Predict the 3D structure of the following.
Amino acid sequence: MELTRDDESILDGRDGEGKRKAMEILVALGEINEAQKLVPISSAQVSGVSYKTIGDYGLEFLSEWASHDTKVKAFTTLNPAGVDPDIANEMGYSKTFIEKQRQIIEVYRSMGIIPSCTCTPYLAGNLPEFGESVAWAESSSVIFANSVLGARTNIESGVSALSSALIGKTPYYGLHIKQNRKPTFEVTVEASLEDMSDYAAMGYAIGQEHDGIPLFKGITPTRDDMKLMGAALATGSISMFHVEDVTQEYAREEKLEKITFGQRELREAYDVLNTIDDPDIICIGCPHCSINEAMDVIKSDPKREVWIFTARQNRSILEKHAKGKNVKIICDTCMVVSPLEDLGIKSVGVNSAKAAFYCRNLSRLDVRFDSLKRLIG
Ligand code: F3S
């Protein structure tokens, strides 16, 4: 890989051990993937924030890295943490968990990262322009950036996204290169998709069975539909999709492998994720709720309590509308990376296939995956 003189100097330790280590990681990543060079990024989104997922080892690793007075060069935001610090005590999380989570956030903050703690950075001020390269971790934000925003990112790990944040560059390979962003197979949707959860179910089914870049035909999803569908597609290894006449980089391609997605496949996607009929709580917001989605929940005046996970800047506006309703607004975290199981919760109702998948497989919770309307009755 060709490095500039500046890159070489950083690799030689000119800017300190923290930057040297970041550059070493980017060079190794670039060489593995046969990148020719590093390219500038306009932003980074760093994952590996919840104490539930990174534990003491992660906290020590990050603290050591940050101890060299290492500061990010790119505008950088953060994925969700394990608790909402404003209500963590009243919700019953352990004091140890709350304290460790606080320490993790402080380490990231000390590196100059904005502790936005949301997986929808594009709804919280980290909104790249079409065609810009970024280095984002968190698969749901990666697929949204590539497919809906037209920004360019590979799916980064927390460590590689942090390295890019510190250097302000990323290796130029994969989805940073225009010709790698074309569809590789075509999905004709015959099923009738009536709810966001239907889009999520289809995304899950396709994502589990296929690799590459799908081109969907026969659907007209909203941005929120694509948010849930993308998150579900990314539970497999898909990092970009196109929708005919909807997404910005959609282009006709001849000779693609063709598959159809019908009503039977839709039903099967729900069935495979469902383990229970009557969950302990209902959790909406995977990926984090937009204001529109959250307002739809609040306006529905649910009979049973619904926990809405969203970005912090939405709190005050949503709490005003949620007063007197059976709704709890929870920021900075989500139903997956928060240890709900430690609160005694054994099952969740979700309208997100990604949440259903990880609540089952990471948190070992029972799941009802359904439309919001059916979940709240
Ligand atoms: Fe976001 Fe948590 Fe889902 S990080 S995409 S709400 S699993």
